[in-house]
Amino acid sequence: MPKALASGGAVVCAAAVLAALSVTTGAAAKQRTDCELSGSKTRIETAAVRVYDIRHRRGKAEASKRTYACRKGSTKPPILLYDDVHGEGGYGNFVVSGARIAATSLACNKVSCVQQARLLDMDTRHSLVGPAAPAGGDVAVWQAVRAYPTCCGALVYSAETPVEPTTDRPLKDARIVVVEPDGTARELDHGPTVEAYTLAVARLQNNGSLAFWRSGRVLRSAAL
């Protein structure tokens, strides 16, 4: 009888171990994300996020290219940023701060193309978006060239028009814009002397951010 009890105890113990392993395995599987899909190509990766391109095939149709943003350690699915089945375009100029991703984007249809800057918070899955063109501007001409996240959760970006001497746009135009966390946008600078590609952002000791850029021979800045 004692032997039978011992045997039964071993069975119960083994079952308990298997159950514990099952729970552990299930928890691990729940935490696994699709951040490391086979065949994907990394655009930018940090300890917190990964942005990648991957080919996606629908039946017999030609495979389209998709761009996803993924939060590592999250059980939520990656966020689709772009699918070229909808037209020419894509994302670029990525800058990552923690779980926030800033980038510029281009989206085209059969009629025209539109450029903008975007800040995506991978924790809240909330986005801030700013158009490259100012109000009343030609959206097909303006190009978003830089985008940065700030410490307070705002988006600061720069945009410009190309120089085309043989058209009615002999001089370029450019602007620097900040989009606050509540979605309110305001221009920090605007004019032909603004050098959009010089925009950069630094972190201040008080946990604020400083945006700075060149306008002609002058270095300008704004605390954000």
Can you walk me through this structure?
This protein is mainly beta and 224 residues long. The chain has one domain (34-223). 13% of the residues lie in helices and 48% in strands. It is built from 1 helix and 15 strands, in the order H-E-E-E-E-E-E-E-E-E-E-E-E-E-E-E. The protein has one helix at residues 2-31, and strands at residues 41-45, 49-56, 64-71, 79-83, 89-97, 100-108, 113-121, 126-131, 143-149, 155-160, 174-179, 185-191, 194-203, 209-215, 218-223. The chain has a 4-stranded antiparallel beta sheet with strand order 1-2-3-4, with no helix packed on it. A 4-stranded antiparallel beta sheet has the order 5-6-7-8, with no helix packed on it. A hairpin with a 4-residue loop joins strand 7 and strand 8 (126-131). Mean pLDDT is 83; it is low at 1-32.
In a nutshell, what does this entry contain?
The protein has 224 residues and is mainly beta.
Secondary structure elements and their pairing?
Elements: H1 2-31, E1 41-45, E2 49-56, E3 64-71, E4 79-83, E5 89-97, E6 100-108, E7 113-121, E8 126-131, E9 143-149, E10 155-160, E11 174-179, E12 185-191, E13 194-203, E14 209-215, E15 218-223
Antiparallel strand pairs: 1-2, 2-3, 3-4, 5-6, 6-7, 7-8, 9-10, 10-11, 11-12, 13-14, 14-15
